[in-house]
Amino acid sequence: MKLNSPRGTADIYGEDIKYRDFITGCARKLFHTFGYNEIITPAFEHTELFSRGIGEGTDIVQKEMYTFRDRKGRSLTLRPEGTAPVVRAILEKNLLSQKVPLKLFYIGNMFRYERPQKGRMREFWQVGVESSGPDNPLMDAEVIWLLNLFFNNLGFRDLNLLVNSMGCPDCRMDYVVYLKEYLKGNLPGLCAECRSRYEKNPLRIFDCKVPECKKIMEDAPKIGGYLCGTCREHFLKVQGYLNELGIDYRIKHNLVRGFDYYTRTVFEVVSGKLESAQNALGGGGRYDNLISQFGGPDTPAIGFAVGIDRTAMLMKQSGIGYKDPLKGPRFYMVSLDEGSYDYALKILRVLRETGAASDINYTVRSIKTELKNALRNGYDYMIIIGENEAADRTVTLKSLDTHKQSIMKFEDFNDEILKITGNGRS
Ligand code: AMP
Predict the structure, then answer these.
(1) In CATH, what number is assigned to the domain containing residue 359?
(2) Which pTM was predicted?
(3) Last residue of a domain, one of 248, 283, 318
(4) In this structure, which residue's CA is closest to atom 4 in ligand 1?
(5) Which of 54, 89, 100, 382 could form an SS bridge with 133, CB 3.0 to 4.6 Å?
(6) Does residue 172 register a pLDDT over 50?
(7) Quick one: 354 and 296 in the same domain?
(8) Phi first, then psi: what are they for 357, rounded to 5°?
(9) How far is the CA of 117 from the centre of ligand 1 (A)?
């Protein structure tokens, strides 16, 4: 029987792991400097969390959720996104009583039943931040700055940052009337799906990738023109702070994002090098009513999520390398006879306890074979232990780069390894 991984999933290994480690490592470090702490939430939640949180009319809830009943008949769903679970955890654990603003970040796998294609998977990974507390536009600017800096730190230089305001529910209600008015005359030109979106959730039509729909939406009234005074002022301040921070962004008037919970500021980072259907590397927005909608205190919040897989893919495609935090010389410990294994193990212990990547030969073979093996596997050093070394308590260290060989006392080996690896504590 041949078993394949399910459609839309991937095994991640080899170089891809290096890219992921680099991306998540950069995220952890940077998010820490902005005052965020990590939270890990479960990979599945009660279905209701998402249907209520993301919105019944959204594509995700309508057709993309992996929903199943457990053995007791409860309806559970593999998380399609990270915000609703974080909000659930904040309320359940009463985290807002400890700290406001509450700044959390997460790294996790998400699941959406979408049509798999390049950059679009059914299981994919995201890193994201959620900041709850102030509705100060300074927070919007700070979160957008963080997203921008994150991509800069990874090495990207040619991404586009798009920003818009979707207003509050009041301005949106007014706006939707005008939008529907405009769409009414264009209904026959829309795809079948958008015609059904017209009643349920006309804002979603902006997300449609069908060229005819896109064309119609280009001339549609834009929400920016219908913002109430407070929302307009909020958005202007966000822009002011972004300008102050020297951030290069563009206002995209028809940017609306796929979840119902967004209010006011929304933003996205896109690449011209990816196909337009999945050209966003990350995005987010403000969700001022989600926490109260789940029964929590009236607490505005804002966040973003970045797709790790898609980011890694674009890094590779753009020739952006990763820095390998695990990089360092690798040692190959070779015991030349069975009797020396006890001593060899002592040496291996020094290597591993000083943080040096190291392996040992499990089968005794000739030194010539071992040397070939070491070179083929890219080791940097070989440590040779035979009867003499075991008897004298010495270590023979051979550089596979210079082929220089040195013999040292066991007592000096620890310091020598720290010197070579740079792993000593300063
Ligand atoms: P969203 O949660 O839809 O705002 O998506 C945020 C980011 O997650 C996107 O910009 C992508 O980088 C990534 N993403 C979303 N859906 C997928 C998917 N199906 N496959 C791979 N990456 C995805």
Answers:
(1) 3.40.50.800
(2) 0.86
(3) 318
(4) 283
(5) 100
(6) yes
(7) no
(8) -65, 125
(9) 12
